[in-house]
Amino acid sequence: MAGHVRTLPLCRHRKEIYLMLYKKIKKYINYKILRCKPTQVVIETTNRCNLNCPFCLVGMQNELLDQHGSTSHDLMSRTQGSMSPETFDTVRKRLRDFGIKKASLHFQGEPFLNKNTSQFARLLKSDGLYVGVFTNGQAFTDQIIEEIADVEIGLIRFSVDGASEETYTVNRVGGTFEKVFENMKKVVKAHAGKKTRIEWQFLALKNNEHEINTARQMAKEININFFVKGFRETNPELAPVNPEYKPHYLKKPCSDIYKQLGIYWNGDVVPCCYDVDGKEIMGNAVEQSLKEIWNSDKYRDFRSKVDNSKKQSSSEPLICKNCLRWQ
Ligand SMILES: C[S@@+](CC[C@H](N)C(=O)[O-])C[C@H]1O[C@@H](n2cnc3c(N)ncnc32)[C@H](O)[C@@H]1O
Ligand code: SF4
Fold first, then answer.
1. How far apart are CA 279 and CA 321, in angstroms?
2. What is the pLDDT of residues 133-166, one digit of tens each?
3. Which of 47, 50, 52 gets mutated to test ligand 2 (max ligand atoms within 8 A of its CB)?
4. Which residue out of 52, 57, 61, 106 has the highest number of ligand 1 atoms within 8 Å of its CB and is therefore the one to mutate?
5. Does the predicted model carry a pTM greater than 0.70?
């Protein structure tokens, strides 16, 4: 009994040491490992879109919702365009020089509206990058399917937010469920025996949550990986009721800005994939190297404001104040 009384403070002491060590390691990981230069990039092959989903412009909700009651794609104020092969060649060189390891060929728009997307994927893959793409799946032709299957990229993710024509067309305005379902089947077939992961992503919304089980079953039947994505509440009215489908939020300060950067179709570089409308353009990858842009005063200042956002919320960048990932 006496021995037990003696070990109690020791035990507490040990706990305190562990806690202190844990905090130090966490701080070290946070600042030395996470806070290094990005190795991932999202490339906007085009910001044009064949659909007009009412929830599309994530991060713009504070500016758009009151005024328009929507955050749909056509409210984007940036000039519309597609990345040219010449711009891509320079961007590709920039990625190599900066040591980028992973490229996603979508940003704000439908990547397969740019007829060169498969070729861009091929070139990036030949440079040793992991390549993935998200698509609404409406623009595929047999030729595009053949081309992209031949490249055998790492990931093709279909965004399909409904399991019936009636629901799908409300969310993916301008598309048809029949077409995307047909294209998913064709893409799966064309990739038989290849290493590409093919996914059906179902964004859970109030108007489609009742179709999730049906969609999961349909996905099984056509042999495509299925998952439900939490809706970032650009418009709270569209949010699902079931709490299971709510997205997870991370605790600020954000570390995404140290992992990834975005390149628009014209070469403009932005620090976050939620900067969908060019609020924080850091430079242009056609004119400057990524190293130069990353080390610029503007980018450093942005990072410092993000890092200190908890202590100095007044100077936090607007896109971060609107963030639907970090809170
Ligand atoms: C902007 S889209 C561009 C690529 C392509 N047009 C598509 O729809 O897949 C990129 C991804 O963002 C997702 N997305 C759009 N609005 C969203 C929101 N409010 N919450 C969560 N994801 C969203 C889409 O489902 C898609 O998977
Ligand atoms: S298909 Fe993608 S880019 Fe186009 S409007 Fe919908 S979410 Fe936005």
1. 12
2. 999 999 999 999 999 999 999 999 999 999 999 9
3. 52
4. 106
5. yes
51: Cβ below 6 Å to ligand 2?
A: yes
What contacts 24+ positions apart, CB below 8 Å, involve 317-320?
Answer: 317/279, 317/280, 318/279, 319/59, 319/272, 319/274, 319/275, 319/279, 319/280, 320/252, 320/254, 320/272
Note every long-range contact of 299-302, with CB atoms under 8 Å and residues 24 or more positions apart, other chains counting.
299/271, 302/257, 302/271
Instruction: Report CA 184 to chain centroid distance, whole Å.
Output: 21
Q: What is the pLDDT of residues 159-193, one digit of tens each?
A: 999 999 999 999 999 999 999 999 999 999 999 99
* Sheet bearing 102-104, strands edge to edge: 225-229, 197-203, 155-159, 130-135, 102-104, 40-43, 260-263, 268-270, 283-284
